[in-house]
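Title: Request for sanity check on Cytokinin riboside 5'-monophosphate phosphoribohydrolase prediction

Description:
We are preparing a figure and want to confirm that the structure record we downloaded matches what your pipeline produces today. Could someone re-run it with the sequence below and paste the raw structure tokens into this thread? We only need the token string, no images.
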Amino acid sequence: MGVPEGETKPEEQRLGPVLRRRDQVQPGTTDQRLLDTEGDSEWVHTDPWRVMRIQSEFVEGFGALAELPSAISVFGSARTRPDSPEYEAGVRIGRALVEAGFAVITGGGPGAMEAANKGAREARGVSVGLGIELPFEQGLNPHVDIGVNFRYFFVRKTMFVKYAQGFVVLPGGLGTLDELFEALTLVQTRKVTRFPIVLFGTEYWKGLVDWLRDSVVAGGKASEHDLLLFHVTDDVEEAVTLVTKEVGR
């Protein structure tokens, strides 16, 4: 529906909470565009429609995880080989966390994530996998008891933090680093409180810790106190003890 004959195009248009003026005024109304039977299906890929998908992912995630017991999120590389010491460490960590009274949450994929889920399942605990839609299909590993797949990384990362009392981070790549620095930022800015972060594997994480201390802190981009936001260890029992101590178990 355009401007009626003899009338000029309005200078101001209100579409719900959105205000449009001058050249940004659109022809027709929202209802008209909704009820019009003609037109293509591109609207299902527009940003307003994506908001509904995002909302549905939050609802599904909250519904699936709301009744979890206290949990720890375990991160690590999907490329960790099943015959590697890192994989075995992941299994031991998953098992030890369950024995300490925690559920285990991972990204649900293979490698280090599978290892932690395997340890949790073998210890008869709650093994959770939060998967993500990727161009290359991975799927949830067979040791996941509760699995949720997400389209959006930021929704998935919200679930990792909201339903966990801490992070244990095994050696990993860019995705692991993303999750690690997200958690560090949330703790540093006090968006979350009492949230222990344990890096497992001193040799692997040494270069990163040195860079944070010698470049980031030394350059005034962070404070010395920020280096206390995480712990580094090679010992499974110590990793679990650090998590247990900081969450008041």
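Thanks, this matches our download. Strands lie at 12-15, 18-21, 71-75, 103-106, 127-132, 146-150, 167-169, 197-200, 231-233.
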